[in-house]
Amino acid sequence: MAEKYFDFDGISEFAKEVALKELGETPENVTNGLRELKRLLQLETNISVPIDNELWLMNFLRFCKFNPESAKQKIFRYLNLKKSLNFAESFQYDDTNLPKAKGMFSGLKQRDKLGRRVMITRLEQWDPKILDKYLILNITYPTVNLLRLEPDTQINGWIYILDCKGLNYTHVLTITPRFIKTMIDFIIHFLPIRARGYHIVNNPFFFQPIFKLTKQFLPEEYRSLIMMHGKNISELHRYIAPECLPECYGGTAEDAELPLEETYSVVKKYENTLKHFLECEIKDT
Prior knowledge:
GO cellular component, one term: membrane
Organism: Glossina pallidipes
Order of helices and strands: HHEHHEEHHEHHEHHEHEHHE
Number of strands: 8
Oligomer: single chain
Protein name: CRAL-TRIO domain-containing protein
CATH architecture of the largest domain: 3-Layer(aba) Sandwich
Number of domains: 2
Domain CRAL-TRIO: 93-257
GO molecular function, one term: phosphatidylinositol bisphosphate binding
């Protein structure tokens, strides 16, 4: 049932307009971009990438607005981080840790009015004594890559909501500088998905030091994408229409969320596709 909320085939008319306007995606640029990126990658002897998988290549070309050289550099950064982020070395379907994250992660079933995916994390549902902070990355890695299979998501990008309701000092002590840097490396430097906004809601006063620390690791262009709304949920509606949001965020959408557990059923079905999609590495020299 969850599969019906994903768009793996084709591109919507809305996304085609966005691709043309924001990314310069024309038939000529697609043809030339793919040809040049393949040529550049074939010259590199220390990498193994799915060079014939055009959806994989298009993911990087779209992210880099069809600049083949920039796309190649992004691929190298991706491969280097893939090696250092040990959870990303290879894809293996594993749902054994899902119960530890019950209620913590979800996504909206429908895209927002600008065609963007909206993902939600609720810290209230996270018990660091049960779910190790680095296991969070293992658990979310498969579903995030599922979004990379969607052409519309490659084009329109995603929005992330971090709900800090229930944040306590145990969480604060768990969120170390090293962990913050790992999360930023994963979300910003590693994933070739266009970030369209990071919205923090229900954040208490003691969240400010965490945010201040986080900003130190953020590239300048990403700092403007982060908005802290506190308990002023109506402020969130300036960026995401209430019709798209669940009631808990002042929205009017019914049965709006798709829990991570249900998404994993789609991950299971596309396990082989994801394995091939993620078969790439930078070789030791």
